Amino acid sequence: MYIVQIASECAPVIKAGGLGDVVYGLSRELETRENCVEIILPKYDCMRYDHIWRLHDAYRDLWVPWYGAAIHCSVYCGWVHGQVCFFIEPHSEDNFFNRGCYYGCSDDNMRFAFFSKAALEFLLQSNKRPDVIHCHDWQTGLVPIMLYEMYQHYGMERQRVCYTIHNFKHQGIAGADLLWATGLNREPYYFHYDRLRDNFNPFALNYMKGGIVYSNYVNTVSPHHAWEAHHTGISYGLGHTLHLNQDKFGGILNGIDYDMWNPESDRYIPYHYAKHDLQGKALNKKALRDRLLLSHVDKPIVAFIGRLDDQKGVHLVHHAIYHALHKGAQFVLLGSATDAGINNRFWHEKNFLNNNPDCHLELGFNEELAHLIYAGADMIVVPSNYEPCGLTQVIGLQYGAVPIVRGVGGLVNTVFDQDHDSTKPPEERNGYVFYQADNHALESAMDRALDLWRQNPDSFRQLMVQGMVYDYSWNHPGEEYLAVYDHIRHK
């Protein structure tokens, strides 16, 4: 099968979050299953060019219709750790992708509208006809719209679209100027509620809504988050649209790259270990304490790794630090805040706890340190307000760091409570789950984990091993996506 992924990120060359990891990991998995996969990306000035091999001209004179005229683009091709990627570079005064950033510009909606248009124009002009176009998040929500309203009339009538939503919070909003820029034009047609009109603002067009309406299949990145999006407010206003399109909507759990996240071969940790031999984990715990100047005492290490923002339940992260210390545990945090207020709050806590031998807060992100924390921690806390999939808990399981998670989104699909889960027998449970977003619920789950560590170390060790047995690689998601592609190809 010939598959083209159109996205705004692909790790490690362009990565702002989990989207980049998914685009790369899924593409690689699909190729191992003997499919042809190509990735189309913007050519940002700030991307990691050192991760691209043999970057060269692929299509020099791509003229992309825009506002009744056309913008000249160059398309470059290179290999990102084995994956074929095409990078679109517009030559215009707009400087769409020469901003020193991936996102955060006031005209992001038009930047990615142009990218979506340019990606389709490249497929058309270069005579590429994939079986399936797989696009991601709001940035490429216009792709299925323009494909079925425009490009199918120019020889692209056989292409089918799978649209994956990684985060419903950001949906892409524009006014009528979007229609005139892209050549869609017909305002009354697209401002109809059944097409692009935002569900709550009659004067706005919603990219993500359009992607849902026009795609052949829509999914989010875990089965439980799909249920939440359909039945709760977590879809940020798109619940009715999902309900109308429920026959083509589902959830497919993300995977992780087990070549990168593997305690048996991880190049970032000093001691390798496996589920049948955990001696190296104890040595990594000592190395983590040496690195962060923590005291060498007989205490469990509880960790948090991730963004410090409201989505990640930052109020509960704060409480987890002090509850762990109160209960005689050590706490390690690695994370950065995007909000100035949250950043200031955690710098205050870092300064306050700076001389505490049982606590270290690392405000920022360090790839090497993240691996060492996973390898050295006994438990990893993930108290998210919402979590479409979540990678932290899955990586924690792989490294024998028992997850303590809030029962939302993909956390429900990957962590099964040691004491209370009714879907798994005791020998298949792998962590602790709480449901309310308050301190008492978090404390209850943390206390159960800490008590098991102290009172029954053999059972805690067995729980670690049960978590390490789980396979959350791209193997199963790859099968599911191929089944989706096959289904929509034959509709």
Short description:
The protein has 491 residues and is an alpha/beta fold.
In the CATH hierarchy, what is the architecture of the largest domain at level 2? 3-Layer(aba) Sandwich
Q: Name the CATH class of the largest domain.
A: Alpha Beta
Distance between the termini: 16 Å
Helix count equals: 17
Structural class: alpha/beta
Number of domains: 2
- Low-confidence segments, given as residue ranges, are none
Mean pLDDT level: 96
CATH superfamily of the largest domain: Glycogen Phosphorylase B
Give me the side-by-side strand order of the main sheet.
3-4-5-2-1-6-7-10-11
Biggest pleated-sheet summary: 9 strands, mixed
Any idea what the radius of gyration is? 23 Å
Helix content: 25-40%
**Per DSSP, what share of the residues sits in E-state strands of 2 or more residues?**
15-25%
- Overall 3D shape: elongated
> CATH topology of the largest domain, anyone?
Rossmann fold
Number of strands: 17
